[in-house]
Amino acid sequence: MSTGEVRTAQAPAPAGSYSQAVRAGSLVFLSGQTPRTPDGIRHADAPFEDQVRIVMENLAAVADAAGASLADAVKVTVYLRDPARTAAAFDRVYRDHLRTAEPLPARALVQSDLPNGEVEVEAILYRRGEAGHDA
Questions:
Q1: Edge-to-edge strand order for the sheet containing 119-126?
Q2: Domains in the chain, CATH or no CATH each
Q3: pTM of the entire predicted model
Q4: Among candidates 71, 69, 61, 73, which has minimal Cα distance to 8?
Q5: Burial category of 16 from C-beta neighbours within 10 Å (exposed 0-12, middle 13-18, buried 19 and up)
Q6: Does residue 7 sit in helix, strand or coil?
Q7: How confident is the model over 47-68, as pLDDT tens digits?
Q8: How do 21-24 and 3-6 pair as beta strands?
Q9: 3-class DSSP state for residue 61?
């Protein structure tokens, strides 16, 4: 199985010791994205739905750099600071970014004391049609 790092300037550079994503065969593991734009500016005080859009745009950019899209997501983990208050708003924006995904990916929603915003999202993608893998 081949592995490799995925990098793109269309999403924020890692803020620590991790890769934006890693390919492992037909799977792509997208690291958690927070409301930080590609220029590195954090938007922790932006309205919640704006934070979600930034996060999802970052994930989409990394997925694209891996030769995939968010429609290829098979598992998504969502970290919310206050899910009781924000889960429904998150889901509205999230669905817009996954509108072509069928079936929708498996998902976990986790309450978290996030230090830099109200939301973080990570995903696992399955790149269909990879040589040597199911199409």
A1: 3-6, 21-24, 27-33, 119-126, 73-80, 106-111
A2: 3-126 (3.30.1330.40)
A3: 0.92
A4: 61
A5: exposed
A6: coil
A7: 999 999 999 999 999 999 999 9
A8: antiparallel
A9: helix
